[in-house]
Amino acid sequence: MSELTGKTLLISGGSRGIGLAIAQRAARDGAHVALLAKTAKPHPTLPGTVYTAAEAIEAAGGKALAMVGDVRSDADVQRVVERTVERFGGIDVVVNNASAIDLSGTESVAMKRYDLMQDINCRGTFLLSKTAIPHLRGAANPHILTLSPPLNLRPHWAGNHLAYTIAKYGMSLCTLGLAAEFADAGIGANSLWPRTTIATAAIRAVRGEGPTHRSRSPEIMSDAAHLILTRSSRSCTGNFFIDEDVLAEAGVKDFSSYRNGRDDLDLEPDLFLD
After folding, report:
1. pLDDT for 148-159, tens place per residue?
2. In the chain, which residue ranges form alpha helices assigned H by DSSP?
3. Catalytic residue (choose from 51, 114, 164, 258)
4. What's the longest Cα–Cα distance across the chain?
5. Residue 181: how many CA atoms within 13 Å on its side-chain side?
6. If pLDDT is split at 50, 70 and 90, which confidence band does 165 have?
7. Bridge-based pairing state of the strands 240-242 and 143-146
8. Tell me, what's the pLDDT at 179?
9. By CB distance 3.0 to 4.6 Å, which of 7, 22, 79, 158 could disulfide with 222?
């Protein structure tokens, strides 16, 4: 397969950034995209809602279903999965994109923020995947793609921001476990992580404008995701992919079109990569 034509993707947190870029790339193939996000109304500092995202998907050539909900809520996730199946007839792909970030150290991180990251990142990934699996079993080429890093156990990464590292590695453990548990069912489970920082509104809110000048655009992640999701789910599973490597394997040699900031600045490596 080289396209996602007629496939149904269910994406968490897809109202902006990388999630929306993945949705729009799939839409260009004519895919159906169901979005689960909390953003019913515009955020004071983060542009876009689940409804504007749906409009962008339709404009790109796909069919969209915008659903307001919280990936932390069992009832919301169950409702979203059921509505997706009712609208589009099944689910072919789950993209676990929703994520919270707080890079505070152990002494300074608020437990409310710790719980938020655990509930959205780790529990939300597990819950959405679990709830969709009965429908993925019936798909021709079912994939679960989680935006989480390789499991790099060098102490540096845990020592710098333990709470966030635990939450993101929990997502990656979901990939590891789902790939093994559902290999016989032909469900591919993989993670995708960027080589460099990605210029998103969420990163600007957390770290300011500085890093975005040394970042790449979300489209590098969406193009890499597309290549993964069009592979055979039976043979492509249990991987921790890096966006640049996926594209290089497909023959891409020039990544300059993905530059977001100034050409005279070195790109900033993302977290968890040595």
Report:
1. 999 999 999 999
2. 17-27, 50-60, 74-88, 111-117, 124-136, 155-160, 162-181, 201-207, 219-229, 243-249
3. 164
4. 50
5. 11
6. very high
7. unpaired
8. 98
9. 22
Residues of 33-50 as b/e, b for ≥16 C-beta within 10 angstroms?
A: bbbbbbbeeeeeebebbb
Which residue in 42, 57, 46, 43 sits closest to 11, CA to CA?
57
245 token code pair: 């490597």
> Distance (Å, rounded) from C-alpha 8 to C-alpha 140?
11
Domain boundaries, the chain: 8-258
pLDDT tens track for 93-144: 999 999 999 999 999 999 999 999 999 999 999 999 999 999 999 999 999 9
CB 80 within 8 A of CB 69: yes
Q: Give the integer Cα–Cα distance in Å for 4 and 102.
A: 34
User: Distance between CA 99 and CA 171 in Å, rounded?
Assistant: 10
Q: What is the pTM of this model?
A: 0.96
Class of domain 8-258: alpha beta
Q: How confident is the model at residue 197 (pLDDT cuts 50, 70, 90)?
A: very high
